[in-house]
Amino acid sequence: MNQQPDLAPEGLADDIAASGYAIRPLLTPAECRTVAALYADDTRFRKRVIMQQHAYGRGEYKYLSYPLPDLVTRLRKTLYPPLAIIANAWRRSLGETGAEFPPTLMEFLAKCHEAGQTRPTPLLLRYGPDDFNCMHQDLYGAMAFPLQVVVLLSDPGADFTGGEFILIEQRPRAQSRPEVVPLAQGEAVIFPVHHRPVVGTRGCYRLTMRHGVSRVRSGLRQTLGIIFHDAA
Question: What are all long-range contacts of 102-107, with beta carbons under 8 Å and residues at least 24 apart?
């Protein structure tokens, strides 16, 4: 893991407010290769999904099993606290009621498990030539954390071409706005799972977000997805 990535919640929140996402370097090239190599070990995973069988796109992904690999556990625990600060600020700005997100990942997962959401959601995704991921949202139950992270494990230009990460903002009473997110190997994009607050002329409102991956032109593109809520 890169030494002391800048995960200050103020800076992350400012980036997301300005662009819809934040980018931070998280993993070294060696760590990227180590995580990507896990894909061949089926004992580390609870489920494999062939995307074209479900009209999700083309390609495949696997959900990791508990216990998660140490590096994935460390990333999940490190990223959650600053993102929880942002998530709670979003709740307040939107006037949402109910309990706030707790300060630690373990406390939040305990709430997920109490709600019957016990299956781990971090996953590895793999795309070959002509593979892509349709625009979607990663919601797995009533308990949902509003931010998630994708880390690019492959080296763009060397390992693959194409395969850009894409966000779409669905704006009320307006056409949707696409955003292509440039990532280098080891960089993470931090983005909303479902929606984010935006201040308009009539106050704060929800901007619906979806994400996906454009068609891979050549090579092999691998990513690590870190979702903080577990699945039902």
Answer: 104/77, 104/80, 105/76, 105/77, 105/80, 105/81, 105/228, 106/77
